[in-house]
Amino acid sequence: MSICGVQGERRRSTTVTPLASLAAAGVCLLAGCASAQTAGSLTITYAITGSVQATGSFSHSVDAAHLCAAASLPALHAEVNGQPVEAPPGPPVYLIEFDPQAPASQPGALFKAFAYTPGMVAHSDPADDWIQININGQQWAGHGVQSAFQDSFTFDPGGLSGHLTAHGLLAHGPDGTVLPGQSVDLDATWRCPQA
What we know:
Elements: E1 2-3, E2 6-7, E3 15-16, H1 20-23, E4 41-50, E5 54-61, E6 66-74, E7 77-80, E8 83-86, E9 89-98, E10 109-114, E11 122-123, E12 130-135, E13 138-143, E14 150-155, E15 161-172, E16 178-191
Antiparallel strand pairs: 1-2, 3-6, 4-5, 4-16, 6-9, 7-8, 9-10, 10-12, 11-14, 12-13, 13-15, 14-15, 15-16
């Protein structure tokens, strides 16, 4: 398996599957490239409004922490009689990772659109999707357990880039707890590296 040029690595038990448009080439990455970036860069451009106002962009060459993929994520990790057990894979997901484990003080993002299929051009599933981004030293996140969270993805027909709007992202502290009274809306685009 190859994820953004990293041979043999499995990221958090993510199984990456080829997209139809890239299957013939034997690659599992989504493709696309910002004109100002090299062919191997993932770029996210954003604007947020609400408790914080900011615009900017992140760009980084692809590696194990900066990737675009169509993947199927495990539905459950458990332990039975001291042995790890994994339930069958969950639904397919469109995944953008820009160093999602980075501290809030550094650029980081994670966009997951569940039930993605190659060729899909529009998607919205706030009950299952996950949006996370670090802006101005603060981590903002939205997912199904938040009643005010809404999202909408549009993908180019080949899954090479796209646009995301998300409403009701909440501020999270370093320990993951929600910080009361702070929320933002996100408007973002991304361009994935050419495979």
